[in-house]
Amino acid sequence: MNAAPQDRRFANTLARGLSILRAFRASDDGLTHSELAARTGLPNSTVSRLTYTLSTLGFLSHAGRKDRYRLGPAAFGLGNVAAASVSFVEVGRGILQQLADDTGTLVSLAVRDGDRVMLAKTWRPVGTASIWLEPGHRIPVFGSSSGRAIIAALDEAVFRASNPEDRLVAFRAGGYDDLIAQGFTIAPAETRFSTSVNAVAVPFHADEFGEPVAFSCGALPQMLSEERMRETVGPALQKTVRALEQMTGRSPALARRG
After folding, report:
1. Sequence-distant contacts of 170-175: CB under 8 A, at least 24 apart
2. 3-state SS of the chain: helix, strand, coil percent to 5?
């Protein structure tokens, strides 16, 4: 869990409870107390109190003493409300799936989540059995193409308020140059957080969040080479994001940067 802000207005108990809900991933078949403790960094005793409260409120379900915890009906209801409020996802569903099919890559929507970015939605190419990355998966801002696209389009004051390290400032500047020159960005090979995934990303300004998100195309390096990212997939992704902006009446993300 990210370090709590040093502000008296910050409710630590609420933050810990929400970290329990955020620990779940789409592929999980429930989580035990020890697994929740490991993912959140919270003591078992704290996890026990939080899971009891969340279960009582319907945000977690737990059938018995030895059963695993799963997201409950209240969490699903909240998720459905949140999904319905993000209109551009539904508007772009068809063209984003087509992009995944045409490029044979995993198309994903990433949102900023502290010092990481979270995959909020994915579109897999039809006929591909591989699980790849899934909604709820979190990756670092530094070293990811999605993170680079988001911070490159992020308002200057908002970015500086996070007290970024020099390497992140340089990472952002390179992303901005990429977006100006070619309309998409790729994390430099020497900075990538993983050698098992290649990805290219383009920012999109989400009015619902008041800041940019990123759409990306990613795959294993043997399926998505550096040349293919730059010559084929990157331009196709940029074209799709531009089409989505036109469909939703939104201006390019860089036009919003302060």
Report:
1. 171/142, 171/143, 172/148, 174/148, 175/148, 175/149, 175/151
2. 50, 15, 35
pLDDT averaged per 10 residues, the chain (length 258): 64 88 81 89 92 88 79 75 74 95 94 87 81 79 96 93 94 96 96 92 91 95 94 97 94 80
pTM over 0.85: no
Q: How far is CA 70 from CA 51, 80, 258, in A?
A: 10, 17, 41
Q: How far apart are CA 76 and CA 87, in angstroms?
A: 18
Q: Where are the domains of the chain?
A: 12-74, 86-256
Determine the CATH number of domain 12-74: 1.10.10.10
Architecture of domain 86-256 in this structure: 2-Layer Sandwich (3.30)
